[in-house]
Amino acid sequence: MSSTPAPQLSALADPLALARLQVLLVPVHNSASSSKGNVDLTDAVFDHWSGLFRSHQTLRGDEILHGALSPRSPSARPGKDGQGPRGRFLPNASAASISRGGSSNHVHLAFPSQPPAKHLYPLSLLRMTSFPLVVVGIAVEDGDDEVEGYSVDGKLEPAKDKKGRPRPTLQTQGWDSAFRHTLASILPETSAFPLVKRLVLVPSQTPSPSSRQGTPARKGSLQRKDSSTGGQTVVRAPLDGGDNWVARLLGELVGEVFGELGELAASLESPAGMNILSGTLLPSLSSAMPSPSHPQSPASPAAAARSRPQSASSASSRPSSLVHSNSLPIVPSSPGHGGASRTLTPGGRPTSIQNPSAPPIQASAIAPAPSPVQTSSNPFRRSGVLSSPFNRSSSANANASANVAAAALAKDIAGMAKYTTAPLAGIAGGRLLKLLGDMYLITGMYADAIKCYDDGAERARSVGDVLWEALAREGRAVAGVGEAWEARDGSNLSTPFPTSPIPVEILSHYFSALACLSRSPLPFPPTQILSPTPQTASGSFPIGTRVSAPQIGTGEGLLAYLYTSMCLRISHFVLLIFAAGGWGSIALSSLISHTLPRSFPPLLETQNDLSALRKRRLLLNQLASQSQLTRTSILGHAEAALGSYKRAMPKTEQLAVYVEVAWLARWLDLERKEAAATRQLASLLVQVITEGREESKRFASQLATDTDAGKDDNATGIGLGLPVSVNDPRSLRRRESAEGNASIISLFERACQVFGVDLLSLDVEPKVSTTIQTEREAETPSFGWADLQVELLKEGIAMAEALPDHAAVIRFCLSALKALHTHLTPSNQSQLVKLYPKALSIIRRRAIDFDGIPWWLPGRIVLSVEISSLSVNKMPFEHSRTEISTSEKKEGRKDPFLYNPRLKGPGVGKTTLVANEQVDVYVTLQNVFSFDLEIQDVSLLTDGVPFVTTPLPIMLPASSVQTVRVTGMAPAAGSLQIKGVNVRLMDGSAAEILLPVADAAGSKRDSKRRSHILADAARTKRQGLEARNSMLLSADGLPALPTQQDEHKWLECQIVEEQPLLWIKQTSLTHGTVMLYNGEKSIIRITLENSSTVPVDFVKLSFEDSVSREAQIVVAEGELSPEQAYEIDYDALNRPVFSWDSPGDLVIPPGGRTVLTVYCLGKVGCVDGSIRIDYGYINRKEESASSTFYTRRLTFPILFTVYHTLECYSLDVAPSSEDKQTGSVNGPTSQPAFSASTDDSLRRALKETDDRDVLFCINIRNVYGVPFEVALGTAQTADESAEPLVVTRLVPPGATERLVLPIRRQGLTQEERSRAIPSLTGRQYVVQKGKRSEAELARTREAFWFRENLLQLVEISWREPGSLRSGTLSLRDQALAGAQLDAFRLDELAVSLTVEPRNKETLQAMDFVDLRINVANNLERPLRPYVRLEAIPTSSNDSSWTSPAPPPAPRRVSSLPATPVPVAKTVAFDGVLDATLPLLQPGESASHVVGAVLLASGTYNFRAAAEEIVPTSSIPPTVCFSPNVAVNVA
């Protein structure tokens, strides 16, 4: 466990301070010796010898040299033992002493680092042990003087003159004067202390560690002789053996102190001394220090009487209220005091006997009565009864106890006679016994001290002298500790505090002393002018209840000092018992040495080691369980010293109190209590330091004024020896002192850490912080009370300004803005944001060493980073070079799939940018403060190819979110990653904020880690200071969110090589609008200009229009049949709205122009369209073997207005002539409907038609307001010599014309008929929703292909008369019925019947005719036909044709009836009616002739039938009939 050693405990809180004899070690410098070139005292020498002195904390009784006592004063009264007053307090001096023998007594020493404060000297008699009774000066001796010192037997042999008197040497006179000057500088002139003083001249060199003690290292080191000059003793120390020599010297000095105490006790017991003790509340010891130039020591009462008029005159200046006497008792002094006389001086308010005070707190009021326990091996355990604390007796009990105490005192007069012979009646008796108890306590006679304290306290209580009673009871408690320590058994056993009667009794005496102090009157009356508390207006912060400012001269500060010091001593008394685990030898040893036992857990160097911290807390809990003392109760005693009365003390004493409370809270691991004390401690330190610095400035200014006095009247000094002219307008500013600022700030930082305030660190490297902002960060739990944290930081800022510490001002301001901005009002935020720039400007102006400001903005200042996509005309598109070769072919391979993952283009998901072109990046910033945030620059953090950005300054408004544009440019092609934003504020703080792209995997990973953290945090409930963020993050090792940059994905950009840039300079359109008739074609000319420095060698046009978009939507729905989808695709591919003829290799140089020609077709329903021009530079010289290239695209939008002019409907396909079909041979026939046509070419075509021709008919209706000339013609055939037939009609507005055009019937092979309906685009194959039969599918395909042949034969165009506007009409929307397709389809087996008269053109009855049956094979295979001639009735009432149906007969080779059809009785046939023709090859024909005689006149109808002769099969045979032929016979 890493720990730090516990610091030395302060003497202010020492429970045994009253029993310690103070020895003050001071360095002495002789200016005369230094001017001669002798070696001066160094720190190393002083530290060495002061360490030797401090190593002797306790002296045994046998180590005190009683034979070295100075001769008795002539006025000293001899004691009972014949030794006089100076041997009174020797351990074996009086047989009446009840203490142990002299060899068993111990004298405890204390070595303070500084003399007491001057305002505490009124307590010189009341608390004598708070002042140095011995002063030892340490100086380096000169090497010129003869070495004198100890003899071998160790006796003091000072040099003497002829008359036997001490003979001073020249050197000792100089050192004596220097020593007196040193004491005069640190002690008041009227100070009665020290009682004994010595000046030790030490060697200029420290002995080596290897040298042995007592071995002489120089000549005469063992023959030293003390010299005495005027009562001042100067002693020379040996070079070696210093430890033993120091112990001997301390024994001599303590022996002299014992003698001085005896003299003092004798003076107090005198009648004058008793009068002064009873006259005022605070009598004190004083001394008239002789002048250093005229040292004169009144060694007798006569000398004191001679000096009395002067003191009386000085006393006349005191106020009349001060009680004084013309016969003040003189305390005889030894020569070791320097010749000064000590007197008892009255001080404070006059005293009188009062009512008895409340009885003391009994031991039973501290702890409950213990249960009977077994006898312990501890011999000094006492039995007692314990109960609840702070219970005072009632007034009746108080009076009763007062009467009992008075009776006890009357009986004990004879018992106290062995301690003093002075009368103990009245106030003086109790006070004298208290002072005697102090002297016995110092000399280590604790039993005698207890006796004096108990009797003195009761006497003081009986007369209402509560102040002296309080100090007597405090001494009684300390004497009890000393007595218990002398009776210790040395075992390690310890008992709990409540069950140990001795510590409970001691604590009850402490509590009684506190209760008496709380009731003590003010030491001085309000009219007192001389004030023992010089602070008139304490500027300390009030804590708790406010009290009025103390009145001047009342001595309230002295009472506060006594009360607070006693509270601290009580807390340390209980602390050391707690640290030892209970009452025992260990606790007593710790109390005597005032150190923590080794078993007490030491403090930790750092609070981050949680295992060590928990281990220490566990040990503290074990100690609390063993001692049955709580840590809060221990600290509660010290907190009692922090009442509002502390304001009466000087700030330095207040500082000492807060330091002790803070250390005590730290040892007990009460961090909140420590932080509260540390907070007040830092505030007091700031006040003390600032007041000291102001005083130093005033002193330096006064010194400079005094130095410059007498110089030139026109020049003034600046304190540096440099004259400055009065008329000089310039001024000089002294540099501010920063000494101690860092320590104060570190104290405040510790308080902030406990209160949960996260302070910024100014020494963080690097200064530019890197923060990774994820899409959703885990919320950091807050700790502490926000309002308290705000007030704490406000106080810290005020402290830093007062010091001044400008770096701390900046740190606290920024910490408040970062961590507590949500709890700061807008006005507070404005003050902070104005305050820290002022401090920063001062630092920069004065060139103060400052590391810079860290990043302090809270939360997410950068919300997002977005790359602005290039404009449409600048966006580069990636292509494969194989597209160029494919496009050059007439028909490239089409991918049947709409989505092919294998052809996914490279760089999908990346933003593509162009080299050497400006790019706009939009950064969204957030300002959470209530003031405008000024940002010096915002730049981008990139990786990959260089990216040059221009830093952008910005002012973010208060509480706003703003998006700014950052421009940049990449000079070369390659890959670019944008990782985040670099933000720099006006104060110099900067941060690199990384913004990873939240992909699916990263979001899932962050979500898992965040859930793990929140789950673990909610699993365990933490309380107290363990809930702080630092402990939450480090206690269980919870995984944090990813911080490594490699775990994230960044915004990636692909920088392509520099691209050309075209723009449309002009077009042939007006306002980009085209107005066309339906089917009209127009030409659009577009002029392009190259505005870049890169040529263009690739241009490709693509088009889009509203009709094609709607068609794609309909096709994408998948609800169309294959025939409908084919029609839509055919219209889009063969009749597009836009088309153009590529000019081949087209090159546009930089700055060049070119004209593109685009053809436009008007379609009804087309409202808009666009022309996309893709261009690029693909044949680069520096191009490496790359399979891709980039193009740019220009889009030219066009608005359409297409007028609906002509409608086509009622498409029909009919046989060419009804006359030919009926076969009229004789008699007049009616003209066909189309014979009236005036078109000669049509008339001729109609006459030339045969059974292989049909008529294509369609109606044209004009729905527009102008006439149109419509032409229906056949399409251009491969035979260029044949002139196509065209039928033209003029269709007026609102009129309808039917156009007729003869066309040839078409036949398709079986392969052509069975072909699937194709898909003209690369559309993915879609399975049909409904299943069709094979026959239905075959019929659908056959109808589709016959219709396609029909539509390819004809075309319709139109022209507007009187203008050049023309166009075409589409027939793709016309549907054909089954009968129309049958008429257009060529028969597979063609049968025709003709009537050929014999020798006559006009037929009459009884004439012979030949009926010829012609059969043609139009199939793809040979066939054998079977034909039959039939006569059919001419009317429905002709019964001559009817006959019963023959019975069924077996099938033969034909499906025709086996029995001949009954023929009419008026027709006689010559030949067989049916016959089998020979095998006909494809395209061949054959005929069969039957002769007939028409027996009567009238009309005869004949029909021929033909059937293919096939083997027996399930497939029905092919049967064809010829048209009916009518024959008219006259």
UniProtKB/TrEMBL annotation:
Residues 560-840 form the Trs120/TRAPPC9 TPR region domain. Residues 862-1057 form the Trs120/TRAPPC9 first Ig-like domain. One of its GO terms (cellular component) is trans-Golgi network. Residues 1209-1382 form the Trs120/TRAPPC9 third Ig-like domain. The keyword Transcription regulation does not apply. It holds the Pfam family TRAPPC9-Trs120. Residues 93-104, 287-321, 387-397 have a biased composition (Low complexity). The gene is trs120. Residues 320-479 form the Trs120/TRAPPC9 N-terminal domain. This is Transport protein particle subunit. Keywords: Golgi apparatus. It is found in: Golgi apparatus. InterPro entries: Ig_TRAPPC9_Trs120_1st (IPR058565), Ig_TRAPPC9_Trs120_3rd (IPR058567), Ig_TRAPPC9_Trs120_4th (IPR058568), TPR_TRAPPC9_Trs120 (IPR058564), Trs120_TRAPPC9 (IPR013935), Trs120_TRAPPC9_N (IPR058563).
